[in-house]
Amino acid sequence: MPDIRVDASSAVPIFRQIVDGLRSLIAAGVYRPGELIPSVRQQAVTLLVNPNTVARAYEALEREGLVESRKGVGMVVATGSQPAAVRGAEEAVTAALAEAIAQARTAGMTPERIDALYRRAITGSGGSNESKSGRGANHD
Amino acid sequence: MPDIRVDASSAVPIFRQIVDGLRSLIAAGVYRPGELIPSVRQQAVTLLVNPNTVARAYEALEREGLVESRKGVGMVVATGSQPAAVRGAEEAVTAALAEAIAQARTAGMTPERIDALYRRAITGSGGSNESKSGRGANHD
Amino acid sequence: MPDIRVDASSAVPIFRQIVDGLRSLIAAGVYRPGELIPSVRQQAVTLLVNPNTVARAYEALEREGLVESRKGVGMVVATGSQPAAVRGAEEAVTAALAEAIAQARTAGMTPERIDALYRRAITGSGGSNESKSGRGANHD
Amino acid sequence: MPDIRVDASSAVPIFRQIVDGLRSLIAAGVYRPGELIPSVRQQAVTLLVNPNTVARAYEALEREGLVESRKGVGMVVATGSQPAAVRGAEEAVTAALAEAIAQARTAGMTPERIDALYRRAITGSGGSNESKSGRGANHD
DNA sequence: GTGGTCTAGACCACA
DNA sequence: GTGGTCTAGACCACG
Asked: Radius of gyration of chain B from Cα atoms?
């Protein structure tokens, strides 16, 4: 399923959804080094978004070093991009988690309470890791 | 910490920082029902922001039902606001955590990996509960 | 029951609540011409409001001609004030109704629909005149 | 009447007039789900008000769930907004009517008298349904 | 003194 | 182009 889905009514900007989506696909090995990613115009048609938005996303991916533009050819996945994509995704997730945790701390929550909320959030969203996480967590 | 701090260079809007800060203070019981919160003008001086920005935050707090505006008097903390403030803060944190987790999942991370990132994020930001992860705590 | 009740958390200004309350008491004959109404200070204590607010209300009542200030004595109900109070109350109510109706019209509601809403509003608030109003309207 | 009119000298705030006006247009089906409503700047020019005032109205409409903001695009009418708009408008009118009726009751008016005032208010403002109301009682 | 509203003008991210 | 946010300064009703 080498396709991305974009939610226009989401609070997260469309160009960022595209960046995150492609980074995930590269991290997961769906797009392999050297492979061409869809052209800006094609991607725009596929996702039903403005080409400028796709171009902006591709530009960000290029700055991240995950793709390279080959003149006359298009954007190709960079060599060694897969671990970089994994790292980038983890950094993004860690930053998001840290922000949520900071917000919780300023609200005066104890680490235990934050743990409880995290547990609830991760189990409530399709997760099923309570048996192998080695943590006797009781999610409520 | 009987005061709010505002970071103008943050990505989160100032008025939202004020909302979150006051919600936390109400949740923590610093401001009790019936009590007056600082006036718009006074708060503006304290936080070094424009009065309109404070007014916007107060308006949002009123919509949340945490405070009530008394014309000519000021904004008083609503009765029963404390549990509502706690609930509101937890909902906001849970939503932020859920969003981060969703992002991680789309990047193909395993729950164990997400757990590791969460652990790193919470210990690196002032937390200190990694030793007691046996979790005898009752999180509710 | 010659007392007024004031709701500080209401949207209608306190001074107006006092005006409306006293006007109603005069219209109902509870306060009769020549009779003294409570002093500003006493009324302020009774209603738990700012004396300035009571003074403002009394001023409005005096402008309406419902009460007169007798120097050294206090505010007395004016002669012939009862029908004037009735008239004033009806004018206020008519104005409020007209405003609601105008709002409904700009929303594109038909007179029949407005009638239905009015019927529902008046029966739902302690009224019991659906039998004598002779209207077969179905209030939904 | 595919347009809104704003009365700056009215007691009702301009931004609320805009909210009510657009809600009516959505309720009437003039603006359909998915459609763009006039941009903040354009609406400001049309109504001769400050863009901030329009933005404030649009923000309120978004909180009501009647429109959604698409960054860089504009405000689009939300799906299922039409019945919601009708409901919202009727709730507002009913509340206004109920408030007027409550005021009348505290003034000691009988339901019949209130009916008479309502009749007068609705016929005096462009209505013409007094002939089909089947009501023998025309109290004025 | 209080909050509520409006104007004017600016900068930003996004599409 | 769009909406989102912030500043500055003003006027108003209310208590």
From this structure: 18
